[in-house]
Amino acid sequence: KLFFTDYGNAAKVERCDMDGMNRTWIVDSKIEQPTALALDLINKYVYWVDIYLESVEVVDYQGRNRHIIIKSRQIRHLCGLAVFENYLYTFNSDNLSIVQINRYNSTDVQPLARLDNAKEIRVYQRRTQTAVRSHACEVDPYGMPGGCSHICLLSSNYKARTCRCRTGFILGSDGRSCK
């Protein structure tokens, strides 16, 4: 799945399949400017920063069990968001610091380090990188991912895929070749 925020005409947090299909709004009320998003892949939670409402909130993948993690004026200066164990990590562009927020105890907020010019933060952890033995976009004997001549996108599950073409090309009637 792909999760993303939008604060155009109607602010929302959404999800869809990697090929753009099955687009679903998971948060579409009491939200104004969601600017950063992070996933807890183990527990299937979506966290986001709303700089207008000055809050960090969370819902599950279906948009249920929503609650506020922290609400504070300092939230309006947060850029990026990452989850690791019991904490959320973000960057405060006002005082140029990496901030650690306990996601279960909103009074536990700590500045960790100072950086001059960050806009995003990521945490990489081996156990959250799920291993899949085989998937629909594996390279075929002819060197084409999923049998697609240009781009292979996983669809509703790891066994389904959609072929797409690079800019300037159109997908042929076979659903695999780009012309």
Question: How would you describe the overall organization of this protein?
Answer:
- This protein has two domains: 2-128, TolB, C-terminal domain (Neuraminidase, 6 Propeller); 131-178, Laminin (Ribbon), CATH 2.10.25.
- With 179 residues, it is mostly beta strands.
- It is built from no helices and 13 strands.
- The strands form four sheets. Strands 4-5-6-7 form a four-stranded antiparallel beta sheet, with no helix packed on it.
- The chain starts with a strand and ends in a 15-residue tail after the last strand.
- InterPro entries: 6-blade_b-propeller_TolB-like, Cueball_EGF_LRP_Nidogen, LDLR_classB_rpt.
Task: Record the SSE blueprint.
Layout: E1 2-6, E2 12-16, E3 24-27, E4 34-40, E5 45-50, E6 55-60, E7 67-71, E8 78-84, E9 87-92, E10 97-102, E11 109-114, E12 151-154, E13 161-164
CATH architecture heading of the largest domain: 6 Propeller
Question: Structural class given helices, strands, pairing?
Answer: mainly beta
Q: So, the CATH homologous superfamily of the largest domain?
A: TolB, C-terminal domain
Which percent bin holds the helix content? under 10%
Q: What is the total number of structural domains? A: 2
CATH class of the largest domain: Mainly Beta
What is the straight-line distance between the termini?
28 Å
Number of helices: 0
Describe the oligomeric state of these chains in a short phrase: single chain
| CATH topology call of the largest domain | Neuraminidase
